[in-house]
Amino acid sequence: MPLKCVERMSLGRSVKACAKINLHLEVLNKRDDGYHNIFSVMAQVDLHDLLKLEKADIRHSEGNVQVFINNAGGLNASVIDAISPQDNLISRAAHLMMKKRGYSGELTFSIEKNIPAGAGLGGGSSDAAMTFRLLDEHLEAGDSRLMEFGASIGADVPYNMVGGFAICEGIGNIVEPLKGGLDYNVLVVNRGIHVETGLAYRMLNRSVTTKYDETDTASKKERIRQSIKTRSLEPIKDMLMNHFEGPVFQMYPELKVLKEEILGLGAEFAMMTGSGSTMIGLFNDEKIAQAAEKCLKKKAQLAMLTKFL
After folding, report:
1. Helix spans in 42-156 (H)
2. What does the alpha-carbon distance between residue 24 and residue 271 come to, in Å, rounded to a whole number?
């Protein structure tokens, strides 16, 4: 499966773990297992962490697995120190793959952390996806279960193992890569607000009996495929939405103001990504985008102009 954001890596070289954004996100219903079914369009942008497998002392026998993570700095380096090692998705992914393959030993990773946490950008999930890729390459395993492993770690991990533009369904584990792309300048803005994903889902109040129109979803999917193929959002701008904007804007009205500000600065399209709190703006004109970036940098933790991958 082709990757947009990773090449074959050897021990000691860095790999990009790229942020994802949602161009569309519907939360359809709650499942019997407690998770939610979604219908989303995801895309990677070139805001990324840098992950490196520094050392690997691997034994071909079952036993203890120790994972060490070195903080290599970055725009959001404090995120690494704030997460306990056992809760870091890099560690969880490494432990899972080693155990599944019957290995023990010690692994040391380093990470330059640039993607903010709790921001709807899937940074932790992307780190986990690239952990699976690095270990799979180092072990020369070619393991066909990587998508399955990823789904057990987090909903965005399977997508991040594919990258590019994709329609994602189920709990995020059903990924349909899309042909084409988009040529917009992408402004990513985060003002340091941490949104609790669980609370955002609860505020949507979905249940196992929540109804949704499957025929309508199928029609939307076809429109999305054609739009990305022709490299323009214009044919589908009227249908794009993020169900989380309602509850999150209720909790944080300043985020609604930020969305309106981005549109006022000349964006063709603006939307909150994931369950928040990062806002993205798409611009046709690079100079207008640069002016918006300069304006928003004065009052944001992160205001970065980037591109789709």
Report:
1. 78-82, 89-100, 123-138, 146-153
2. 9
State yes or no: is 221 an active-site residue. Answer: no
Whole-model pTM: value is 0.92
Residues 196 and 306: beta-carbon distance below 8 Å: no
| pLDDT at position 59 over 60 | yes
Distance between CA 227 and CA 233 in Å, rounded? Answer: 6
What is residue 274's three-state secondary structure? coil
Over residues 174-202, mean pLDDT: 95
DSSP 8-state class, residue 268: S
Q: Which among 20, 52, 113, 220 is annotated as catalytic?
A: 20
Domains contained in the chain, CATH given: 14-177 (3.30.230.10), 185-307 (3.30.70.890)
Q: How far is CA 48 from the centre of its chain?
A: 10
298 catalytically annotated: no
Task: Report the C-alpha gap between 128 and 17 in whole angstroms.
Answer: 9
